[in-house]
Amino acid sequence: MKTNQFFSFQRFCLLLRSDLLINYKRYSLIIVGAFIMGFVVLYGNMPKLVYGEIHNWDIFGSNKYIPIFLASLLALGVLVGSSFPELGSKVRTANYLLIPSSTFEKLCSQIFIRFICGGGIFLVLFWIDAQLARSISVMQMVDAKTNLHYANAELVIQKFNYGMIFMQKIARYPNLNVEYYPAFGTWGVSMLVISVGLYLFSVRLYFKKLGLVKSTISLAALFFILFLFMVIYSHIFYPNTKGFEVSLREYTVWNILSNIEIWLCVIGFVSPLFLLPMGYFKLKEKQV
């Protein structure tokens, strides 16, 4: 088989151009909607009223940003899971399969649009929303005692940066916290999140209608089966386990990584090696 029959950069660019010309209004609405919703959620959770002195538990920092960021990833998962929208009906599927491009190019185009472009725009929008929401909240912050603008408002809400998501603190010495970036753990958790997206992306091809809904249900079922296995093993190896409790001993295996972190990292790094070929061959089967 000739190489250009498998992948041609020119055909790939034409496929991307065709997709953008057809769906640019939808993508624009998604970007605007994501920007507005991200700002509303962040702004709504930031404090506007301060009572007394500042304490560590009153500061809007990484402990508040991270849950919002993880919740926002669900919206990105919807975008990724709604890949190949043309496969929702027989007529549109037939037209899509007749496009003069290879299966690999069609798969790569969706990965480029949904993962690379969608993920990059998501990260930029979330950062802009966080900075904008913080600026407005700081200007509006009022001291409950004086009913005036709080002078130290900028200390109450920390500036967002993506280091907050992966930075960890360890008490090495009394009254001293050491902050560090666990490189292996950071990449592992990132790949685990990407693997969940790849699952929604690839398994969606196995369903003709309501692909996102069905792939989400299958993912939930997979996690539930895994949970049941962990409960069974907990009862076998830890007889004192009661009901649906999961007894899992955590210990440090290597450097600062625990056995659970290494287990999650392995899943994150290995899963894409199976999920991407699975999606490719299913799409290839549709074209044949």
What ranges have pLDDT less than 50 throughout 5 or more consecutive residues? Answer: none
Order of the strands making up the biggest sheet: 1-2
Helical content class? 55-70%
Q: Helix-strand pattern, N to C?
A: HHEHHHEHHEEHHEEH
End-to-end separation in angstroms reads 16 Å
Our count of helices gives 10
Main sheet specs? 2 strands, parallel
Shape assignment:
globular
Count the E strands: 6
What class do helices, strands and sheet pairing give? mainly alpha
The overall pLDDT average reads: 83
Strand content: 5-15%
Calculate Rg over CA atoms.
23 Å
Key features of this structure:
67% helix; mainly alpha; 288 residues; two-stranded antiparallel sheet; single chain; 6 strands
Written overview of the protein:
- The chain is built from 10 helices and 6 strands.
- It has 288 residues and is mainly α.
- A two-stranded parallel sheet has the order 1-2. A two-stranded antiparallel ribbon has the order 3-4.
- The protein is globular.
- The mean pLDDT is 83.
